[in-house]
Amino acid sequence: MATISKRGNSYRIRVSDGYDVNGKQKMRSMTWTPDPGMTPRQIEKELNRQAVLFEESQKASSNIKFQTFAEQWFKEYAEHKLRAKTIERYHQYEKRVYKAIGHLRIDRITPRQLQSFINNLGEDGINETTGGTLAPKTIKQYLSFISSIMDYAVKMEVIAENPCRHVSLPSAKAKERDIYSLDEAQHFLELLQNEPLQYQVFFILAIYGGFRRGELLGLEWKDIDFENQVISIRRSSLYVKGRGIITDDTKTDGSHRSLKLPAEVFDYLRRYRVQQSAERLKIGDQWIDNDRLFTAWNGAPMNPNTPYSWYDRFCKRTGIRRVSIHSFRHLNASLLIDSGADVKTVSASLGHSQATTTLNIYAHTFAEAQAKAAQAVADKISLRIKNEA
Question: What is the pTM (predicted TM-score) of this model?
Fold first, then answer.
């Protein structure tokens, strides 16, 4: 039942919106101001009508099911605000989320129900590929998907509070990164000398620049400053289901960066540019000119899976141990840290939005570097303990 109170020349209409997670009653309100010249009887009649309409509108918005609201969120918010790759990933989460809470009224979803869903994602057998559990990172992304929708519901005044804020995520066990040792990296580069120049350049940039795969595939020749030996990251090239290969912004604003790399790297780039120009002339009108470094045979942007496929065949052919392409980025970070670079320098080089992100990811590597530095002090100055009789 709506309550009405007079406030100067206006009236405040308040209706109950249930209770929050702490048992406190939630209220919603609106202000209605009569038109000049309305009689007291007209005001009373219209005021009661406004109160009924407001109460019914609140009931209607709160009655919406989670799946229905989520589908509206994709159209009204996600498609305009989120990156294409993020939207694609969230669509992959819809099936499980809708099965668990899609049928529930969005205003009646409780933290306990969400906690039960999150806990279920960590149970054995839930991963359809491995038969085990989902990775903690994936579980976190599921909760992020739901929370984004709930935040929008709060903003649209459909619910008063986001219940996801009371949900606990499983502890993520720090796993050791599988990266090449220095000797393996050197051997990899030696083996690479006998391979197509395109892949030599791709993996040399991955190691020396620590660039993400999408950043490498998004590189254009105008991003290469040969005179100053600087490479600028300005975009990312991605594959999105249903849309194909797209050009997107970088992962974060901090990912826009420029790195100065060794002269030897630019020697490879010069040779590669000459080779690509020759290929363009050979193909003629079939060449799709888009200024990309890494292309298909006809100049079109390279498919993001192509480097994976080539690297897989390369490892089988040469017998070198296979790691993930992303591990070359970790190798770059490890080499920077081991050389004495501080966290801000490493963060800027990798294009992380915050230095804390770098520190969280490479905490163990920084700890090892610090231990080596401490040992270096001990190697320079020896402590002689005086034996007391």
Answer: 0.71
Domains and CATH numbers, the chain: 3-60 (no CATH), 66-166 (1.10.150.130), 182-371 (1.10.443.10)
**pLDDT for the residue 353:** 82
Could you give the angle at which helices 327-338 and 343-350 cross, rounded to 10 degrees? 150
Higher pLDDT, 258 or 130: 258
List, for residues 170-211, the tens digit of each pLDDT value.
Answer: 876 656 678 999 999 999 999 999 999 999 999 999 999 999
Computed from CA positions of residues 367, 371, 377, 383, in that sequence, does the dihedral angle turn out positive or negative? positive
Which backbone phi and psi does 213 adopt, to 5 degrees?
A: -60, -45
Q: Using alpha carbons, select from 313, 275, 314 the residue that is nearest to residue 294.
A: 275
- The count of other CB atoms within 10 Å of the CB of residue 337 is 21
Distances (CA, A) of 230 to 90, 199, 261, 272, 357: 36, 20, 6, 16, 25
Average pLDDT, the chain: 89
> Where are the alpha helices (H) located in 22-180, listed in sequence order?
40-62, 66-73, 79-81, 84-97, 111-121, 136-155
What three-state secondary structure class fits 84? helix
CB 111 within 8 A of CB 166: yes
Contact 324, 178 (CB under 8 A): yes
Question: How far apart (Å, rounded) are the C-alpha atoms in residues 10 and 31?
Answer: 7
Q: What is the DSSP letter of 250?
A: -
